[in-house]
């Protein structure tokens, strides 16, 4: 027999299956000898008070053994000779779209401008050494998308558009630890994710699909209002359906679509900085203990949000025990992101600290930046938020001495409007340069960040500290453009058979939500082809 329980236990109990069994025997009246196994179905930490508890949902097996697999596998059959569907982009939206197409009996042809996930690693590492960015292979472009070397977080608050749990089961089927099925904030880690991505590609190719690297889409092929393929730098690929999953940094795609008269619309984003603390300090603050997290607790996470002058200010993509990385996708731009390995055991913890930017905010007087090489963009242009994003990334590059050396400032100095005469050690490998970020960031952003940090410092004693460092800038929290589509069919409103998808199309934010959107677009593409 099996029994499901929700229990609240101390960390040392939650850390051991034997300790959980002893707790259940004592509290639930089970015979210890008849308990064969315990499986944790859900795990979260309650650190709101000085005594820390772990909330567990557990399944107790009495006189029977659990199944070998904790995940539910999908069946992927051979699709050789079946109708093709082109998938542009091999990020989470594209990969999960391709896998779903195989389930639907269709043959995915994936075209990816960047390199395979292993080859990407060399180009990513070179950024810190040489301060040069390969425009086709970097933290944003290549197999696995922006998430492959930027943490692999699987937590999403979105529950509206598909099965988040199903996505986690597919990750497990391709090599992820089954712990992601139970953790409240599941995380793969940059050290584990590449192998999982390779296994997904292996499934696609083994079933008869194709994956083409170094293949950049240059133009959509359209005839009579219907998609008929794509033109790439390596020739044309033809199909009656195209899933466009290019990611949120494919600026050339947005410009190409706009130049071709394809309907787009501007979309709000969030912009700010990466904030880095010593991880031990975050552990001390979050766990209310000068000794930190101790033996049984994981590296501490945090989440902050507030409102300042009508706009949200909040933490984003928090990385316990992680590093800050250079995330430019082209020359003469500088932006940063954060990531963690699976063990999350590094010296520092970081998060994006960002301010909500709406489309109408772009023309606000305190948002203006005079940056060389940029012309004004019309207030009605669907690319106006993209242009603002680019100006800020160029300005940051200039402040970093035209290298990937990032401008930085102590947190307390930023709040007080003072230059930092020295900086704390940092995980950011290309190096930091002290810079008055409070001065050159648009006041619309810097003023709200200053107020937000003051609020966060009051809410969490010790968080506002000179030991923390602001590193600029964090700009690619989401796409600045939405490629419009019909809500029911998920097709572009002008072009039949074109399915804008994922973060790059403006319909997702993170690995899981992008994967869910990829599956939805694949199902819609299958339905479209069956109706032809």
Features of this protein?
7-stranded mixed beta sheet; 5-stranded parallel beta sheet; alpha+beta; 532 residues; 28% helix; single chain; 13 helices; 24% strand
Tally the beta strands: 22
Distance between the termini: 50 Å
Strand proportion: 15-25%
What is the percent of helical residues? 25-40%
Characterise this structure.
The chain has 532 residues and is of the alpha+beta class. Helices cover 28% and strands 24% of the residues. The protein contains 13 helices and 22 strands. Strands 13-14-17-12-20-18-19 form a 7-stranded mixed beta sheet. The longest helix has 21 residues, at 511-531. The protein starts with a strand and ends with a helix.
Short synopsis of the structure:
The protein is built from 13 helices and 22 strands. It has 532 residues and is α+β, with helices and mostly antiparallel strands. The radius of gyration is 24 Å and the shape is globular.
Topology, please?
Elements: E1 2-9, H1 11-14, H2 17-28, E2 35-46, E3 53-62, E4 84-88, H3 92-103, E5 107-111, H4 117-130, H5 164-173, H6 193-206, E6 210-212, E7 217-223, E8 226-232, E9 235-238, E10 242-244, H7 251-259, E11 264-266, E12 269-278, H8 279-286, E13 305-308, E14 311-319, E15 323-326, E16 336-339, E17 348-357, H9 384-399, E18 406-410, H10 411-416, E19 432-434, H11 437-440, H12 443-459, E20 469-474, E21 481-483, E22 498-500, H13 511-531
Parallel strand pairs: 4-5, 4-10, 5-6, 10-22, 18-19
Antiparallel strand pairs: 1-3, 2-3, 7-8, 8-9, 11-21, 12-17, 12-20, 13-14, 14-17, 15-16, 18-20
Helix pairs in contact: 3-6, 3-13
């Amino acid at each position: 027999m099996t029994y499901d329980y929700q229990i609240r236990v101390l960390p040392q109990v939650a850390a051991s299956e034997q300790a959980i069994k002893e707790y259940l025997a004592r509290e639930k009246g089970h015979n210890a000898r008849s308990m064969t196994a315990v499986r944790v179905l859900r795990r979260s930490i309650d650190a709101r008070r000085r005594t820390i508890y772990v909330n567990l949902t557990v399944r107790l097996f009495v006189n029977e053994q659990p199944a070998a697999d904790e995940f539910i596998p999908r069946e992927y059959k051979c699709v050789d000779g079946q109708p093709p569907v082109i998938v542009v982009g091999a990020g989470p939206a594209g990969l999960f779209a391709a896998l779903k197409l195989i389930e639907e009996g269709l043959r995915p042809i994936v075209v990816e401008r960047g390199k395979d996930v292993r080859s990407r690693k060399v180009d990513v590492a070179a950024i810190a050494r040489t301060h040069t960015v390969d425009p086709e292979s970097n933290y944003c472009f290549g197999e696995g998308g922006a998430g492959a070397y930027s943490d692999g977080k699987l937590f999403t608050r979105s529950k509206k558009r598909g099965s988040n749990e199903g996505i986690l089961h597919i990750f497990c089927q391709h090599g992820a630890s089954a712990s992601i099925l139970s953790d409240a904030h599941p995380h793969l880690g940059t050290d584990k994710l590449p192998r999982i991505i390779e296994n997904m590609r292996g499934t696609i190719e083994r079933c008869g699909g194709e994956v083409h690297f170094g293949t950049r889409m240059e133009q959509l092929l359209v005839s009579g209002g219907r998609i008929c393929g794509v033109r790439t730098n390596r020739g044309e690929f033809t199909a009656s359906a195209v899933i466009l999953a290019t990611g949120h940094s494919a600026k050339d795609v947005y410009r190409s679509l706009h130049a071709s008269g394809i309907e787009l619309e501007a979309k709000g984003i969030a912009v700010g900085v990466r904030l880095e603390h010593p991880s031990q300090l975050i552990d001390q603050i979050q766990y209310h203990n000068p000794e930190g997290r101790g033996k049984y607790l994981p590296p501490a996470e945090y989440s902050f949000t507030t409102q300042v002058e009508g706009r949200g200010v909040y933490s984003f993509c928090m990385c316990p025990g992680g590093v800050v990385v250079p995330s430019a996708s082209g020359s003469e731009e500088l932006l940063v992101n954060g990531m963690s390995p699976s063990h999350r055991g590094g010296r520092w913890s970081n998060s994006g600290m960002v301010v909500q930017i709406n489309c109408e905010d772009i023309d606000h007087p305190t948002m203006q930046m005079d940056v060389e090489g940029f012309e004004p963009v019309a207030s009605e242009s669907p690319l106006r938020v993209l242009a603002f994003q680019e100006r800020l990334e160029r300005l940051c590059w200039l402040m970093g001495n035209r290298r990937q050396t990032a401008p930085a400032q102590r947190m307390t100095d930023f709040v007080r409007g003072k230059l930092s005469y020295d900086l704390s050690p940092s995980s950011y490998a290309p190096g930091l340069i002290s810079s008055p970020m409070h001065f050159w960031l648009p006041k619309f952003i810097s003023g709200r960040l200053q107020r937000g940090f003051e609020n966060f410092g009051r809410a969490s004693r010790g968080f506002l500290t000179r030991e923390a460092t602001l590193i600029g800038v964090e700009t690619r929290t989401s796409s600045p453009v939405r490629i419009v589509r019909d809500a029911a069919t998920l097709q572009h409103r002008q072009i039949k058979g074109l399915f804008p998808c994922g973060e790059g199309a403006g319909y997702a934010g993170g690995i899981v939500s992008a994967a869910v959107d990829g599956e939805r677009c694949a199902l819609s593409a299958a339905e479209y082809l069956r109706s032809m």
